[in-house]
Amino acid sequence: MEKWDVVVVGGGPGGSYAAKTAAEAGLKTVFFERGRKPGDKNSSGCGLGQRWWRDYPDLMEELQKLPSVRKVEMVVINLIDEHDRLRYRCGTTGSDLCANRWPHGMDGISIYRSDLDPFLADLAVKAGAELRASTLVSDVIMENGQVRGVKTEKGEPILAEVVIAADGAMSTMAKKAGMRERWGGGCTLVPQLDFGCNEDKMEDIIGNAEWCWFGPLYGTYQVNFRDGFHIGAGQWLRDDWDEKPLEMMKKVVKIPGFQAMCRAIEAKPREYQAHMLPWLKKPPKTYTGGMMLVGDAAGFPCPLEAEGIWHAVTSGKIAAETAAWAISRGDASEKALAEYERRWKASDLGKEHEFGPEFVDLWNSSIFDPKLMARQIQLLLEFSMLHPFSIVFDWGDAHMDCFNQHLEHILDLAPEFSEFGKTYIAPLARGIWPKNVKRLLLKVKPRIPALRRLSDDNFFKVVAKLSKGLAPYLDPDIRQDAPVPREVFEKGVRR
Ligand SMILES: Cc1cc2nc3c(=O)[nH]c(=O)nc-3n(C[C@H](O)[C@H](O)[C@H](O)COP(=O)(O)OP(=O)(O)OC[C@H]3O[C@@H](n4cnc5c(N)ncnc54)[C@H](O)[C@@H]3O)c2cc1C
Asked: If you measure from the C-alpha of residue 43 to the centroid of ligand 1, how many angstroms do you get, rounded to a whole number?
């Protein structure tokens, strides 16, 4: 019977990167892909953001050369009201800080999966892993409650010291190993419509940007490639929403601003798909005896905006490194593989999930709530009117009158949105680093006659006593450049 150090199930980004890392560590590695080749289905978008430059700079250099790539230097947000009118368009390109944080500023890329997946799989093969495509893995081999290998659809048994399951959102491996039956809420279905376009016109009109269409629509994102784009909209598995995914896509396509863009770049619909995507408040357990889950199989996509490729690649890397560590100790038991969860939680992947419950609740109750968004647009437009450029171009009255009227209107709207703010925005406050709260307080200190002569430390002690809300940030033992721990923030610091 065949025996490998590491068997990886799935030739998507998570699986290929796990296979590459395992092979580079000198482990005898095979990875299985059910498609005829990795990327065969060209599923999902693929915007790769700035942190790719931080974590995988060599890879990013190489990816630029692939045919479907469009650079991303900007995100354009289009706000649509309930009458389908385009009410606001703005863009973000980051700031000087971004340009200094990475050598490439805000840069990212968009790339079709039919380019990305084969490229990553090829890296794994070059590192020494064996790829078996057109092979569906249908079961795990269990012995004394531990995964010892897998079985292909044809019944072929393949043994392994460690199995890495990178088989996507519907992970057969997780189910067969008894780790879960269903997601139990949170996994969603994303409909996606792909368009082919005139490349030169895209260059002139779209440029190096991703676009979004927000309004009473279910937050539609538009990923732009070299000569095409696709739109997708999320969260179809909620109980309180009964519109069909395709109907929602039709609503987006009908927006006059969207149609104008399509005409300008000669966009023609090519393909409609729908894909499952985990969008979880918290990934469930990600390991069992003999097996670790990576990428979508583990529920890793970002809980705010569901970016998932970096998460798949990064978890694949951590899982393969943990496999090498476990194999070198001759122990791949459940207890040993708990090390995987410890490692990913301590990494940037863990940081991303620290605010999972808050992010999911916020998104579900704003961008993914068409009824609320119909109202929310009013508030967003009012905020946009306090923008310096908006005041310059509001010629309705004297400029300071314009400013005050808009300020008044925001204050009028405040009671309606205060419940939303309290429920969904206030819990995110614990993410503000304590050292930044202290800097803000020190700006106020000279203006408070009774306190301005105190030393900074004594000033913070007094403020902490006076304000339970500020006390958690002022605990002298708390880390200064990390979110305040949830339990500390919720209870406040007792003194
Ligand atoms: C519409 C949409 C748009 C998205 N846009 C973005 C984006 O812009 N940027 C971003 O970062 N993320 C995006 N994501 C999320 C991202 O696509 C996923 O998080 C990512 O693909 C996860 O990678 P993975 O390797 O874990 O799983 P997958 O990409 O799902 O790969 C799993 C692979 O395993 C194979 N497989 C499955 N079961 C078996 C089996 N039993 N035997 C053998 N092979 C098997 C599959 O064929 C597949 O190739 C998007 C997702 C969707 C649905």
From this structure: 7
